[in-house]
Amino acid sequence: MKNLGRNDPCLCGSGKKYKQCCLKLEEAKLANSHLGAGSRAINWLFEKYEREMNKTLLTGFFGSLNDDELALIQRLPKDMSDGVRVNSMEWLLADGLVTIKGQEHRVVDLLFDRGGPLFSIGQRHWLKLLSTTPLKLYEIVAIVPGESITLKDMLLPERQPVTVLEKSGSLNTNLYDLIATRILPLENHFELSGVIYAFPRLKVLALLEELRIELEGIEADSGLAKQIASDIILDYWLKLIVTPFDMPTMVDHTTGELLLFITDHYRVSDWLSLEQALSGEADIEGNRDKGWNRIFVGKDDQTRSSLDIDVDACQKRIKVSYRTQGYADQGRPWFEALAGTAVAFISREISDPKGMVANSQKNKTIKKQQPASLPPELLTEVIKAAIHNLYEGWADKPLPILDGQTPRSAITTLEGLEQVKFVLHSYEQNEAQQAKEQHREPVSYDFLWQSIGLTP
Known about the structure:
The protein has about 450 residues and is an alpha+beta fold. It has helices spanning about 20-30, 35-60, 65-75, 80-95, 105-110, 120-130, 205-215, 225-240, 270-280, 325-340, 355-360, 375-390, 405-410, 415-435, 445-450; strands at about 95-100, 105, 135-145, 150-155, 160-165, 180, 185, 190, 195-200, 260-270, 285, 290-295, 305-310, 315-320, 345-350.
């Protein structure tokens, strides 16, 4: 009998094409044929070999941690501890080795021995795929929300990216997120194994370097490469969890001073006098509608702002903001002498960005502060202006992440070009994540790509 084509009339008599009728049901049935395999396998293993499984997890999955780090794992918040537990269970099925009566076995082999649990054909196939598929580091390079994500192998970027069916994950990820996972080749599509190890982009450079060194000269698709990559990725991920957040010192790159957010609040009693005073200064740009900036040219010949003046919505007050104590010490006397009796000082706010970030790391339940009164479109414009100001002259500034090279000079070598792309994707990934949390459109970083002659 001739195989039924996707565009042939369906045999059920519906009058629809096969691909629009029963093929969908058959594909859905096939896709779900493995469901429940993992939980059934884990339940059986712990019922029969609980002591051995726990020892395998302690010496294998958690084997790189010391006693203090293990204690930290046990004190993790519930959502994080649940994630660690789920990852450890998949590791047990995929890579676990257990010693029983003096003999070492692959954990997955116990499931298929005589006396093991009953599995459907689809479940057995899924478990065997899980145990032979390597854990790899991928970059998300395309997303179809509610349908799929496309992943690029970070160690083998020359390979064709793989598109996997992923409904929930495609709604909770951002472009250029870095994850470690297993991609399972099923009958007519690819799926994730179900477990994801998420990595901050700028924390993954050391991991990539270690993987490249340890896998040098080893066949990329060999069993040895699978074992080495799994061990390194797992250990690195666990160390990130138990290592205290190291907040870098933030400094103003023009003056070298510690970065502070200093805001002086003033009540305006005479708008006409204030506007006339500001318009008479050669280094002041702006107006009452958009606010003002006091600009200067730095030693690097780049134009920057030493203070910003913003008008509140009710048009009765202004905020004068500085980003270092030095700017504030010089700016406040200058501004108050210039404005005179047109304004009256109300209060000063000082926020340490390092302390703010550190505090948010300690208490994940604290919501990120954002100007809720601004509509999303305006918020995007404000952030866009800040980003363009922050990265002014970026192409010719030495960057530590590029080993002190400027982006323009780094792209002259193939290795440097890949590093610059990585940095730019990191900026874009972070902005996409922030925009999603703030319910706004992300700001484009195309201007940075174009500044060094690259196509985004």
